[in-house]
């Protein structure tokens, strides 16, 4: 690990931090535009059904009557400590709820992103090496349809066909409710089940995870396929690809080993974007499958016009995406040796 | 350019879908507005096979038949009619959001590119921050405290949609700024405003046309997803996303309620994507930088 | 005879339909012979090289026979061809900096080539031996510090070094026929001379036949035993390099030879061949060179001459029939 790579990473982290700060400030401004006075602000925290005295109390408690510059500092400090306020419905800190639901969604989104990248790269490679053949058109047709579908449609069709018609997997739910959950050692239920050896629970979780994960991957892979195909077509005509071919390497080796390996590098930058789309898709897809993750949490919050939770969620999503961006940047540096030295 | 668009089969197919969608939305939209203003409700469903609001529990959950082409929902309302009634709203939202995004993004992008310095830095940072979040999440964050009304939704979408255009116009401005005809225009005392509008803004329309076509589809996707979550709907007026959400309760036996609204959106968005793709091919062949 | 090309025609499928870009190519190359293929841009020389290596783009079609050591490559399918690429025929491209895989170390790519050679010969190999072989070859090519070069990435090396690596690959693959397409035009003049010597070295050590494709006839003179002049996808002249350069027979060859700068201070004007090579979509009638020929006759406009043997050479010109 040369010193270059370390500087590279540090610069990226600082960048990420600045963006995060900016995000918090923007959200803060938005809130204050929407709720210009302390009482309106208080209502955001308590929900629409609070009484006047409750509002006053909340306003005092959160310092909502203090001048703006004080508020913004308080707000930033609060956010950085994970204090997003109290959920008015469940009467527990929002951060606790997020801590409960977020890992479940991550258990969907992370595999879905990986799956999406793999499907995208492979289909992109297949389409590129069969340029303008029926196979190429088939691949493009498939990703056109999945890309243009609203996520709830993909989820619904998947549910209908696989769960209801073919009865291969359960249609709804997070886990079989009759099973007893394992101890929560880590925030991730799947990991907990694995660690404690609670295999029935583990497999039940997996069963319920498959369809939502596949749905998310289906909705998002299209953009990877499209760009992978274009990138590969470019690289297939490159001199080094042709030289590798001329050397005597098999066509398959050249396409997947040489061309894909090079063409996939620019795609790493898309991973963060993909992650964002996956999260957005997850919100709706979880609803269709009644999978109790962040999507479920957000849906409930929308129904109850619970702004505190929405705000906390938005910030958490923002942070996750910034982290995903960071990982993608670092990955790029690992994959492409040319970048490391230049920085 | 239109001829080139038509020559390709996929582009032609897409264009037909888009035009059908837009023309229908225009006609039906006018009828709906008239029906409200003139207090003559029947105008709203003049062209529809059935009255979309007609409550008749005895007709509930009818499968697709000759009478009800796409079936009925839990309240016996004809799904096809409801879909047709809901379409103008999507067109309206798409048009307003995209155009305001172009204008806001255009102004900010051109300013950013032309002035440079701190202004540029600030605007670009804000753009990055917006782009780092998926549109859906940001719009939810904006509309919920505004009580998630239809108006709030349009506002939310417009606020979130401009960053990509800002980036684009900034890049265009930077490119054109250094070209000779700007210096020539400056010398001949063309006003700054004219400069921005005619030389930069109008000249940038070509390359962004393909993206705009795709963007209409994107707005419709996001909007319908918001409707699915219950944002932006005004019952009893039907919304495609909302219908799909309600339809979930009818799964699996009464699948048509959940499936057809989503299918409609799919078809419309495919139309825009095909047109956008075709436009992109055409433009790519034409532009010489 | 190592390479025999019989009645080779190459077509490209373009927007205007199938277009013939190589016509009636008949050509022999002996083992260990270096043949220079010379012509202006658009003469078809590059296409000829790509056709022999069977690496034409997907819209290209071959008709005719390309026989190397008894095997007719033109009749083989892509999958069958693969076992001949590299060890029977190898091609080096113009720009060395783009010729290597940017994300893999140079050593890895060279070992790959060596491995392919050994596998084709049916020998089992281990990594250590391959690496040693690679280092030896790099030493032969006089690359400094081979041990550390094999750990480098292509972008860390200079153009000349990279071209040497590609030639090293040729030394490891030991092809019977090496086709080089303008291998020096992207390099400095000083490096050019070194690279030319390396090719000669390759030819001497391994008896590799070389097809040296270039637009620079004086470069061909330095390296080739024989020279072939191409125009509009046809062979115009084919003979020993000293003979062709001292007394070129075809008017086009004469033009090319007299345009070589001689450093003669008294002769200020370089005679140029007027006009441009024709587009393959609109070839002239009769002899394809006649619009630019200073010795044109009536028959040249009507009928295309055949490639005939004359004075130990082949030439396609009505002047000699």
Explain what you see.
The complex is a heterotrimer of chains A (343), B (289) and C (321). With 343 residues, chain A is mainly α. Chain A folds into two domains: 3-80, no CATH class; 94-333, MetI-like fold (Orthogonal Bundle). Chain A contains 15 helices and no strands. The longest helix of chain A has 38 residues, at 199-236. Chain A is globular. In chain A, 46% of the residues are buried. With 289 residues, chain B is mostly helical. Chain B has a single domain (16-24, 77-284), classed as MetI-like (MetI-like fold, Orthogonal Bundle). In chain B, 71% of the residues lie in helices and 0% in strands. Chain B contains twelve helices and no strands. Chain B has helices spanning 2-7, 9-37, 79-115, 117-131, 135-143, 150-161, 163-177, 180-187, 192-201, 205-228, 240-247, 256-286. By secondary structure, chain C is of the alpha/beta class. Chain C is built from eleven helices and twelve strands. In chain C, the strands form two sheets. Chain C has an eight-stranded mixed β-sheet with strand order 6-7-8-3-9-10-12-11, sandwiched between helices. In chain C, strands 2-1-4-5 form a four-stranded antiparallel β-sheet, covered by helices on one side. In chain C, strand 11 (308-310) and strand 12 form a beta hairpin. In chain C, helix 4 (127-140) crosses helix 6 (159-173). Chain C is globular. Chains in contact: A-B, A-C. Chains A and B meet through helix 1, helix 6, helix 7, helix 12 and helix 13 of A and helix 4, helix 5, helix 10, helix 11 and helix 12 of B.
CATH topology of chain B: MetI-like fold
| Low-confidence parts of chain A | none
Q: Kindly state the mean pLDDT of chain B as a whole number?
A: 82
Q: How much beta of chain B, percentage-wise?
A: under 5%
Helix fraction bin of chain A: over 70%
* Oligomeric state of the chains in view: heterotrimer
| Principal-axes shape call of chain B | elongated
Q: What's the tally of helices of chain A?
A: 15
How many E strands of chain A?
0
CATH superfamily of chain B: MetI-like
- Percent range for helical residues of chain B? over 70%
- CATH-derived architecture of the largest domain in chain A: Orthogonal Bundle
Put simply, the count of helices of chain B is: 12
The CATH C-level name of the largest domain in chain A is Mainly Alpha
The first-to-last residue Cα distance of chain B is 19 Å
């Amino acid at each position: 690990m040369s010193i270059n790579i370390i500087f590279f990473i540090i610069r990226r982290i600082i960048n990420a931090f600045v963006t995060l700060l900016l995000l918090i400030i923007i959200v803060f401004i938005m809130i204050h535009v929407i709720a210009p006075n302390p009482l309106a602000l208080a209502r955001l925290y308590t929900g629409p059904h609070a009484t006047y005295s409750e509002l006053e109390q909340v306003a005092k408690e959160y310092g909502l009557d203090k001048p703006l510059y004080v508020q913004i500092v308080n707000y930033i400090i609060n956010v950085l400590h994970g204090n997003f306020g109290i959920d008015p419905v469940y009467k527990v800190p929002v951060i606790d709820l997020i801590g409960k639901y977020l890992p479940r969604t991550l258990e969907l989104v992370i595999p879905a992103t990986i799956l999406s990248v793999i499907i995208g790269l492979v289909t992109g490679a297949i389409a590129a090496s069969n340029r303008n053949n029926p196979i190429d058109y088939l691949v493009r047709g498939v990703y056109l349809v999945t890309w243009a579908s609203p996520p709830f449609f993909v989820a619904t069709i998947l549910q209908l066909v696989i769960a209801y018609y073919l009865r291969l997997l359960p249609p709804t739910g997070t886990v079989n409710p009759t099973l007893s959950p394992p101890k929560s050692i880590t925030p991730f239920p799947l990991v907990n089940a694995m660690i404690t050896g609670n295999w029935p629970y583990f497999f039940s979780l997996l069963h319920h995870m498959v369809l939502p994960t596949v749905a998310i991957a289906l909705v998002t892979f299209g953009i990877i396929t499209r760009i992978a195909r274009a990138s590969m077509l470019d690289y297939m005509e490159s001199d080094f690809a042709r030289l590798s071919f001329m050397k005597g390497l098999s066509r398959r080796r050249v396409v997947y080993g040489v061309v894909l390996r090079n063409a996939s590098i620019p795609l790493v930058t898309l991973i963060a974007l993909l992650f964002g789309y996956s999260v957005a898709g997850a919100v709706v897809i979880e609803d269709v499958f009644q999978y109790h993750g962040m999507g479920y949490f957000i849906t409930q919050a929308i129904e109850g016009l619970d702004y505190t939770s929405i705000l906390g969620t938005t910030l958490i999503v923002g942070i996750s995406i910034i982290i995903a961006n960071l990982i993608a940047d670092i990955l790029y540096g690992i994959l492409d040796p040319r970048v490391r030295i230049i920085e | 350019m239109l001829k080139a668009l038509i020559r390709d089969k996929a582009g032609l197919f897409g264009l037909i879908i888009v035009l059908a969608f837009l023309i229908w939305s225009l006609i039906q939209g006018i009828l709906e507005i008239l029906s409200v203003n003139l207090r003559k409700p029947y105008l709203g469903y003049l062209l529809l096979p059935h009255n979309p609001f007609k409550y008749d529990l005895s007709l509930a959950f009818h499968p697709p038949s000759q009478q009800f082409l796409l079936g009925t929902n839990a309240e016996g309302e004809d799904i096809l009619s409801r879909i047709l009634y809901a379409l103008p709203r999507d067109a309206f939202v798409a048009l307003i959001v995209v155009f305001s995004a172009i204008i806001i993004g255009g102004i900010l992008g051109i300013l950013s590119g032309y002035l440079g310095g701190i202004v540029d830095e600030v605007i670009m940072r804000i753009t990055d921050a917006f782009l780092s979040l998926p549109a859906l999440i940001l719009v939810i964050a904006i509309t919920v405290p505004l009580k998630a009304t239809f108006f709030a939704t349009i506002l939310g979408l417009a606020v979130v949609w401009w960053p990509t255009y800002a980036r684009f116009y900034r890049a265009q401005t930077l490119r054109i700024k250094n070209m000779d005809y700007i210096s020539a225009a400056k010398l001949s005392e063309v006003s700054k405003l004219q400069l921005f509008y005619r030389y930069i803004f109008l000249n940038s329309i070509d390359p962004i046309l393909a993206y705009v076509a795709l963007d209409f589809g994107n707005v419709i996707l996001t909007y319908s997803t918001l409707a699915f979550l219950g944002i932006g709907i005004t019952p009893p007026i039907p919304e495609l996303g909302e219908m799909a959400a309600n339809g979930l309760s009818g799964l699996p036996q009464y699948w048509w309620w959940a499936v057809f609204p989503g299918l409609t959106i799919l078809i419309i968005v495919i139309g825009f994507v095909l047109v956008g793709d075709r436009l992109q091919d055409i433009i790519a062949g034409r532009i010489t930088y | 005879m190592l390479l025999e090309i019989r009645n080779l025609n190459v077509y490209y499928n373009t927007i205007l339909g199938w277009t013939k870009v190589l016509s009636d190519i008949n050509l022999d190359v002996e083992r260990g012979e270096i043949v220079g293929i010379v012509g202006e841009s658009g003469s078809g020389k590059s296409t000829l090289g790509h056709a022999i290596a069977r690496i034409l783009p997907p819209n290209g079609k071959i008709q005719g026979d390309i026989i190397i050591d008894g095997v007719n490559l033109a009749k083989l399918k892509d999958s069958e061809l693969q076992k001949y690429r590299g060890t029977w025929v190898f091609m080096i491209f113009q720009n060395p900096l783009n010729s290597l895989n940017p994300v893999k170390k140079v050593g890895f790519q060279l070992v790959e080539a060596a491995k392919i050679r050994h596998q084709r010969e049916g020998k089992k190999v281990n990594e250590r031996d391959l690496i040693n072989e690679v280092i030896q070859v790099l030493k032969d090519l006089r690359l400094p510090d081979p041990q550390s070069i094999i750990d480098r990435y292509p972008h860390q090396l200079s153009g000349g070094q990279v071209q040497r690596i590609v030639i090293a690959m040729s030394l490891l693959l030991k092809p019977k026929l090496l086709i080089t397409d303008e291998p020096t035009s992207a390099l400095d003049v000083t490096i050019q001379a070194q690279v030319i010597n390396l090719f000669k070295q390759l030819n001497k050590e391994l008896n590799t036949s070389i097809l040296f494709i270039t637009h620079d006839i004086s470069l061909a003179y330095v390296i080739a035993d024989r020279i072939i002049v191409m125009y509009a996808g046809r062979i115009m002249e084919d003979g020993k390099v000293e003979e062709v350069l001292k007394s070129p027979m075809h008017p086009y060859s004469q033009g090319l030879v007299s345009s070589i700068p001689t450093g003669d201070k008294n002769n200020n004007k370089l005679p140029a061949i007027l006009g441009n090579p024709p587009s393959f979509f609109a070839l002239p009638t009769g002899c394809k060179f006649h619009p630019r020929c200073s010795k044109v006759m009536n028959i040249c406009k009507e009928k295309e001459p055949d490639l005939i043997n004359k004075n130990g050479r082949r030439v396609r010109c009505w002047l000699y029939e």
